[in-house]
Design goal:
Blueprint lengths: L2 H21 L4 H10 L3 H17 L1
Amino acid sequence: MGTQFYTTLVAMLAFIGVVIWAYGPSRKSDFQKAAEQLFDPAEADLHKASVAEEEKNS
């Protein structure tokens, strides 16, 4: 087993670690907050103001 094997093994373990971190139960609240943000009236108002400002500056 050479260097290529160990490099591949480390890369695979790093990838699995990132996937577990990203989709683990501790991140569920972050995903829920992001999903609910779509229906937040304050976010819609902020978006409209941002679009209006962008159009004004164009």
